[in-house]
Description:
Two copies of one chain form a homodimer.
Chain A: E1 19-24, E2 36-41, E3 46-51, H1 59-72, E4 81-88, H2 94-112, E5 119-126, H3 133-145, H4 152-158, E6 167-175, E7 178-187, E8 200-205, E9 208-209, H5 211-223, E10 229-230, E11 240-245, E12 253-254, H6 262-282, E13 290-298, H7 301-313, H8 315-322, H9 328-336, E14 354-357, E15 360-364, E16 367-368, H10 374-381, E17 385-391, E18 397-404, H11 408-416
Parallel strand pairs in A: 4-5, 8-11, 9-12, 10-18, 13-17
Antiparallel strand pairs in A: 1-2, 2-4, 3-11, 6-7, 7-8, 13-18, 14-15, 14-17, 15-16
Helix pairs in contact in A: 1-2, 2-3, 7-9
Amino acid sequence: MPVNLPEINPALLAPIQGIRLGWAESNIKYPNRKDLLVIEIANGSSVSGVFTQNRFCAAPVTICKEHLVAVKNNHVSGIKALVINTGNANAGTGEQGMLDALTTCQSLAEIMAIPVESILPFSTGVILEHLPMNKLLAGIPHAVANLTSDKWAEAAWTIMTTDVAPKAYSTSAQVGNEQVNITGISKGAGMIHPNMATMLGYLATDANIAQSLLDEITKEIADLSFNCISVDGDTSTNDSFIVIATGKNNTVIINERNDEGFNAVYNALLETAQFLAKAIVRDGEGATKFLTITVKGALSIDEAKAIGFSIGKSPLVKTAMFASDPNLGRVLAAIGYASRECESLEDLDTEQLELYFGEVLVAEKGGRAASYQEEEGQAVMNEAEIDITVQLHRGNEDATIWSCDFSYDYVKINAEYRT
Amino acid sequence: MPVNLPEINPALLAPIQGIRLGWAESNIKYPNRKDLLVIEIANGSSVSGVFTQNRFCAAPVTICKEHLVAVKNNHVSGIKALVINTGNANAGTGEQGMLDALTTCQSLAEIMAIPVESILPFSTGVILEHLPMNKLLAGIPHAVANLTSDKWAEAAWTIMTTDVAPKAYSTSAQVGNEQVNITGISKGAGMIHPNMATMLGYLATDANIAQSLLDEITKEIADLSFNCISVDGDTSTNDSFIVIATGKNNTVIINERNDEGFNAVYNALLETAQFLAKAIVRDGEGATKFLTITVKGALSIDEAKAIGFSIGKSPLVKTAMFASDPNLGRVLAAIGYASRECESLEDLDTEQLELYFGEVLVAEKGGRAASYQEEEGQAVMNEAEIDITVQLHRGNEDATIWSCDFSYDYVKINAEYRT
């Protein structure tokens, strides 16, 4: 079961003016389950995205990038709809996969009477198999027919693959007398579910945010949320993160970082993205522990992230966490080899750093802290939420990484997963 | 049990002229087991070493590097002895750890009447605990007292920590009418056994190899053997690899790569190092499969190694191998994100590459090969030895990586390991 992931409450998921959602059961992989989602986006919205760096990126990712370029080049006036299917990732599918992704867009374009390039397609599920186009295309009219603004919870259920629980979050930002709403959904979790690939995240707000500014902050927010999580270190072929600003709240107009409300809206978007990213880790395959790894005092954010991921990805650290074992040796060793992924760490002075489990100083001066009592470390490890903090004392940059433990169930699920 | 690791046969381990070995049972961690090894090296030998890149390197690694510099600067005439203890890694032990490593050298130096700087110390075992110096120092005279040339098998047993089986190998090179002998031992396996840290490897030959040439080839051989293996991706604090050329076979003198016998001796050293490196993987924690991952047609060896390790370290690939699952999607995804560790792969054209399981072409043109029948891939996966080959078609460089699968026992051993 997910680690401390609260159940979603549909009543608390605020509709976003300018966004309507509709789903269908199109039997792509399983009967009788929602597997196709259409998100309609009002005219005048800004839409930004960041995508997987995997060289084997899926056909829909390629199409998404092309259509966002078409918007940028004013070939179309903006993105008007997203179409998301589960059950099949349309990855590793060659030319046919590109045709299938385009055909999906064309079908929705005709029904909604919008340009093909104004649609972004997403797929998640088994890879190396072709989309069952007849089923998918048959589902699209049904999804369009039930478009309403209050389906965020159902949307969260629709995009799930092997996720145990749906992931959704709403918050608001106060700008003067105006309330800006933000709602988002996500699904896990990269290559956790490798044949059911893909981390997907969608955020929408009714604030009016200029396209170029939204592009910037989408990348920043991804780097502080979805790019700070690790379950098993694998990077999926389909990972996508989309932020939509509909501008339907016409009184909150943000063109620059200095504009009123920027900080409040930025922080609310970040809060939503971080909740959704952490939700993916909490629902990590076989996870029994949620790890928050904070690295302070680095020369650069890259350094801080490299150490955080070195700890958060280490199978030895993760198995120790599963066993509630306050094994500082494994954490210190993972810090020590982080230079493999960040050259500037080659002169890291291990004598200078401090390591904490929760509030407990466990290591300093290159070894175990003199004050450390193992019972104190054990008490931290016994909890489901474990904080690990590294203070490097070599600069002013910090980063936080979220990860989970490595359990028998991880091996079981990934060794037996094959349908 | 180790995967296809033949039992060592003491009668087949050739003594090396100029090398004597002696052991003691000094109760460092357990009673009644060999845990201290002294290797005596004849005057006039060349000795080279490569060591862990982990910033938390252990005290003995620091001392080894200093003493090799002392030889280079002619403060001492050469390395005359190695002293290796198991049961305690003397890592993460601060200043006291440095003193303990030096005191160990001093004790041996007095007994053998040689300079302190002519001794290289090695430790492997639990980290973050101080060496039990009384026990260790009491053992040294016993190890020196039983120095003989025929103890390579016993030496392989002595340096084991949680290894299931000892690792040793002998071969020879024919140079004109002369036979050059090479014998080596190793123990596993990096951070597989994190509190019993360390990969150690020792090779000796009776050939006469100039110091500067031996330094070069030691690094090359490490890069083609011990630096090509992965069990869990962690890098230990104590990893060390030492090559000794005693020169007692005076008729084979190699000062340059053009000298007669260079290729034969180099290849025999490489064969020995690769056997010992692969033996560590075969004895990997919980291993049931031995993976040979060959990447061909890369622009650089770095590219080939990055892809090999990306596949060989992926928990998803490794759990699939454990399940004998011909899961090409996970392997393709791991190829696709190898650019994270090698920038030049950012323009990798996935349409151009071919993936083989054994002799079976499983993927090409960005997806599953049209000719591929899953039964054929399944037959490859059912074996204990699995070959994976990637042909990139973008350059002329190749590399081979050895890895193992990821089983329930890996989690069990690493979650329960704590003594």
